[in-house]
Amino acid sequence: MSNEVRLQVKNVCKSFGITKAVQNVSFNINKGEVHALIGENGSGKSTLTNMLTGIYPIDSGTFILDGKEIHPKNQVEANNEGVSIIVQELGTLSGLTVAENIFLGHEDRFVKAGIKNTNAMNKEADALLKKYGFERIKAAHMIDEYNFEDRKLIEIVKATYFSPKIVVIDETTTALSQEGREELYKHMERIRKEGNTIIFISHDLPEILEKSDTITVLRDGVYIDTVKSKDMTEDDLKKLMVGREMTGK
Ligand code: ADP
Ligand code: MG
């Protein structure tokens, strides 16, 4: 893990009507770290990362990636800046094949790589699926043939095959079996080793403590603190999340 800053989150705000989902949030995320984002339900984690990845427009504030302001208007633009996301909900599209889902919005990437037809695209996607250890998933099959867990695995391929600088993983482990989780952890480790950054959102505090290097806490859309995972216990994190001693009262 280096101390070089990858992403600066600066005074970022987002409201939905009268709900101030993200209020003037600022913090830094370093290169090559798993940076967890925690907070109770509704604390603004998904809203913040959805702005970073072009899903929601930002109200005010900036994201600065490797020293450069980015303003992605959609997920493809975010991908082209080097930011990808595995969204909290289902992130694949029904009615398309597995390969079409993996490469959606990136047709230019494979044209450049000399991949010009469906057969070639399927071959490329099958090779990727094999590399990830997901051989039983077939590129030419319709995505609808696969269950929620398999579709999450396909999203892992989609979000990480091009070695993005930042990958957001929003509550993905909740949807996965232990086996699926182990697959995800393997790919998180690979991304980190490549010097890239993961923003890891999860409700599972033991998992957060084990898998992250750094943790940022949000409460009611407000930034609370950024701490080192190794200095923290579950109780410390709970206190930061709820803002008072956990006395059970
Ligand atoms: P978290 O991911 O931490 O659980 P969210 O970012 O999803 O929290 O939500 C933060 C707040 O913003 C909540 O009050 C939620 O109801 C609201 N919110 C999130 N997305 C929307 C939306 N698309 N429309 C209206 N309100 C939203
Ligand atoms: Mg969320």
Question: Short summary of the structure?
Answer:
With 249 residues, this protein is of the alpha/beta class. It has helices at residues 45-52, 75-81, 98-103, 107-112, 118-131, 148-160, 178-193, 205-211, 234-242, and strands at residues 5-16, 19-30, 34-38, 60-65, 68-70, 83-86, 166-170, 197-201, 214-219, 222-228.
What does this structure look like?
It comes from Blautia hydrogenotrophica (strain DSM 10507 / JCM 14656 / S5a33) (Ruminococcus hydrogenotrophicus). This is ABC transporter domain-containing protein. Residues 7-245 form the ABC transporter domain. One of its GO terms (molecular function) is ATP binding. Keywords: ATP-binding, Cell membrane, Membrane, Nucleotide-binding, Repeat, Sugar transport, Translocase, Transport. This protein is an alpha/beta fold. It has a domain at 5-92 and 163-242: Rossmann fold. It contains 9 helices and 10 strands. The chain has helices spanning 45-52, 75-81, 98-103, 107-112, 118-131, 148-160, 178-193, 205-211, 234-242, and strands at residues 5-16, 19-30, 34-38, 60-65, 68-70, 83-86, 166-170, 197-201, 214-219, 222-228. Strands 6-7-8-3-9-10 form a 6-stranded mixed β-sheet, sandwiched between helices. Strands 2-1-4-5 form a 4-stranded antiparallel β-sheet, covered by helices on one side. Helix 6 (148-160) packs parallel to helix 7. The longest helix is centred in the C-terminal third of the chain and has 16 residues, at 178-193. The protein starts with a strand and ends in a 7-residue tail after the last helix. It binds adenosine-5'-diphosphate and magnesium ion. Adenosine-5'-diphosphate is lined by residues 16, 19, 21, 39, 41-47.
